[in-house]
Specification:
By secondary structure, this protein is mainly α. It contains five helices and no strands. It is elongated and about 65 Å long.
């Protein structure tokens, strides 16, 4: 009797958690703006995930319970930190829109300028070398 009740509660928690995760993912894809997308992502990382983990605890296996508790602890620590970092980066980008362009905005032609316009202004592409994807490799005099 108790085992059947636990199975029903686990199935309900799993269905509700997956439903919340689905709504959160649809909202993440459809909402405009970082703040609205973070709110939708909170449905996935918050109640949606914890209901699914609660359903995993309902199996009664020690391995599942331990894994679910460790995942819940990890999410409790990392989800607020990542959401805060994303919101802070968005706030900084809105306050200083040219700052996120970094060195690219300062070089001749700016970002997205025509290659011919850059060459006319004396700009040439840097020599091929290993760079981070987010960094802009510049000449040796101002290299990163």
């Amino acid at each position: 009797m108790l085992e059947t009740l636990l199975d029903i509660v686990s199935i309900a928690a799993l269905a509700l958690g997956l439903g919340l995760a689905t709504v959160g993912l649809v909202g993440l894809a459809r909402f405009d703006g970082i703040a609205n997308q973070l709110h939708a992502a909170g449905l996935v990382a918050g109640p949606g995930l914890f209901l699914v983990l609660f359903a995993a605890i309902g199996t009664g296996k020690a391995e599942s319970i331990t894994s679910a508790l460790l995942v819940a602890l990890f999410v409790l620590i990392t989800a607020p930190l990542s959401a805060h970092a994303i919101a802070q980066a968005d706030r900084r980008r809105r306050e200083n829109p040219d700052e996120d362009l970094g060195r690219a905005a300062a070089r001749p032609g700016g970002i997205g300028g025509r290659a011919a316009g850059r060459e006319e202004e004396g700009w040439s592409p840097p020599a091929a070398r290993s760079c981070l994807p987010i960094a802009w490799c510049v000449g040796e005099e101002g290299g990163i």
